């Protein structure tokens, strides 16, 4: 009897390995041809994993010539990272005579790597002179496609996460519905305003979560999402609409709804963007204040002062009155900052703003121009002397000693006065004159004012 070693090197060994049964109707030549023509790789191995037979598909998968794989341990073709885990599974399958399926990487004859799906059946060695039958499928293209799909999924996930973070960070509430009008998403602000947790709200009818009524009639307001989808355009909620939150609180809101389209440009849902009207009004007021008022003293800034000055000049022209501008600059204020620090300096500037404001009429305006400079607008005065009287009062008020942050401090200032129409007919000319006169006042020493009309300069005693 020929040995196993002889048989595995014989050409056409498959029918020598398989036991022949004279009653079998299948011709062994046909069996070998079927195996060789089968699209999946087929291997027969002994208990040590040596290849007793490989079909043409398997040699093509690995890029070997027919017969080159005979008597070689098929495990040597495994990619190193896959060898250890698969060998452990292989030994377990051999021991229990169970089947095995796994995705592994194999190294081809040219050194390239391919992904394969391995199906192995462990056979009883008492019945056959071989221990296992392997079917190998090249799944490299499938793995490449899976990799692309994972990359796409990761990109979509990251894009969704970015969108989620963005929507959660904006000040407006955002919710979306499907075509049936059921909730599909709420951002964080929508959760806060409605009182609904986004997970609990999912799938709920819109008007159960977004319960809105008309503020005047108290009737249920029209469904904005439904209207946007029906009209296929952005729609706005009626003014005075009230949202009833989950705990019954009423919040006046403004909103708009727009249809959501799928890739075929068909309406697939709606998005509603809304916000608390009171919060919006407060934000507008805050923004307006930052635009028109000084952040330290709360006084009007130059933008507002210039606007009010132009209006005051117009009123004075119509009523045949005068307007005065007092340009006030603190004397040697840099020494105050250097000696006591900027925090104390800021407190002193707020004190100056308060003292100056108390010296003028309610209709007059005090502006912090910049740093330690202030502008005072006296509207509709009769005589220039009215302005000089106010200047004396201001300098006297500023010169009163004060205690700030445990420091006794006495301040002084210089004031230049320009009067409409004597010194100019427009805001720019008047402020330029007042600025120049202020420097003339400084030349005479601290705590003085200057006016270009009849002499009104002179030291003001505290």
Description:
This protein has 462 residues and is an alpha+beta fold. It folds into 3 domains: 4-138, PAS domain (Beta-Lactamase, 2-Layer Sandwich); 170-276, PAS domain (Beta-Lactamase, 2-Layer Sandwich), CATH 3.30.450.20; 293-451, Reverse transcriptase/Diguanylate cyclase domain (Alpha-Beta Plaits, 2-Layer Sandwich), CATH 3.30.70.270. 40% of the residues lie in helices and 26% in strands. Helix 13 packs across helix 14. It is elongated, with a radius of gyration of 46 Å. Residues 100-151, 233-289 form the PAC domain.
State the gist of this model.
Helix content is 40%, strand content 26%. It is α+β, with helices and mostly antiparallel strands and 462 residues long.
Keyphrases for this structure?
five-stranded antiparallel β-sheet; 19 strands; Beta-Lactamase; seven-stranded antiparallel β-sheet; alpha+beta; disordered N terminus; 16 helices; 3 domains; 462 residues; elongated; disordered C terminus; 40% helix; Alpha-Beta Plaits
Radius of gyration computed on alpha carbons: 46 Å
- In CATH, the topology of the largest domain is named Alpha-Beta Plaits
Q: How many DSSP-defined strands?
A: 19
Distance between the termini: 134 Å
CATH architecture classification of the largest domain? 2-Layer Sandwich
Helix content: 40-55%
The first-level CATH class name of the largest domain = Alpha Beta
Point out poorly predicted stretches. Answer: 1-17, 22-26, 454-462
């Amino acid at each position: 009897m020929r040995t196993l070693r002889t048989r595995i090197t014989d050409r056409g060994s498959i029918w020598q390995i398989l036991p022949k049964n004279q009653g079998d109707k299948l011709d062994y030549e046909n069996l070998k041809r079927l195996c060789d023509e089968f699209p999946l790789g087929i291997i027969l191995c002994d208990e040590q994993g040596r290849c007793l037979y490989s079909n043409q598909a398997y040699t093509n998968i690995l890029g070997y010539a027919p017969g080159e794989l005979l008597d070689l341990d098929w495990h040597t073709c495994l990619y190193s990272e896959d060898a250890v885990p698969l060998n452990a599974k292989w030994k377990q399958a051999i021991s229990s005579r169970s089947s095995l399926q796994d995705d592994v990487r194999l190294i081809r004859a040219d050194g390239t790597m391919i992904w394969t799906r391995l199906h192995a059946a462990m056979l009883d060695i008492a019945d056959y002179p071989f221990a296992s039958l392997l079917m190998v499928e090249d799944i490299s293209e499938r793995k490449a496609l899976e990799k692309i799909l994972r990359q796409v999924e990761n990109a979509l996930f990251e894009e969704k996460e970015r969108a989620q973070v963005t929507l959660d960070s904006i000040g407006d509430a955002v919710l979306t519905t499907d075509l049936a009008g059921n909730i599909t998403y709420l951002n964080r602000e929508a959760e806060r305003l409605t009182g609904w947790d986004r997970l609990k709200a999912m799938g709920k009818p819109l008007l159960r979560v977004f319960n809105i009524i008309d503020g005047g009639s108290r009737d249920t307001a029209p469904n904005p999402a439904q209207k946007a989808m029906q009209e296929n355009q952005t729609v706005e909620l009626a003014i005075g609409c009230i949202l009833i939150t989950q705990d019954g609180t009423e919040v006046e809101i403004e909103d708009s709804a727009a249809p959501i389209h799928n890739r075929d440009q068909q309406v697939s849902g709606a998005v509603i963007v809304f916000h608390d009207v009171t919060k919006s009004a407060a934000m507008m007021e805050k923004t307006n204040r930052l635009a028109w008022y000084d952040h330290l003293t709360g006084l009007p800034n130059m933008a507002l002062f210039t606007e009010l000055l132009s209006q005051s000049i117009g009123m004075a022209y119509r009523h045949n009155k005068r307007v005065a501008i007092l340009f006030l600059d603190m004397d040697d204020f840099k020494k105050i900052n250097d000696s006591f620090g900027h925090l104390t300096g800021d407190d002193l500037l707020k004190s100056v703003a308060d003292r100056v404001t108390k010296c003028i009429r309610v209709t007059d305006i005090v502006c912090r121009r910049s740093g330690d400079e202030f502008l005072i607008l006296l509207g509709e005065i009769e005589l220039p002397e009215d302005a000089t009287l106010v200047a004396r009062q201001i300098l006297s008020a500023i010169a009163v000693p004060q205690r700030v942050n445990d420091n006794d401090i006495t301040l002084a200032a210089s004031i230049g006065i320009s009067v409409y129409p004597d010194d100019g007919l427009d805001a720019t000319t008047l402020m330029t004159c007042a600025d120049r006169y202020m420097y003339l006042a400084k030349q005479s020493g601290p705590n003085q004012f200057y006016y270009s009309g009849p002499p009104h300069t002179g030291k003001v005693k505290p």
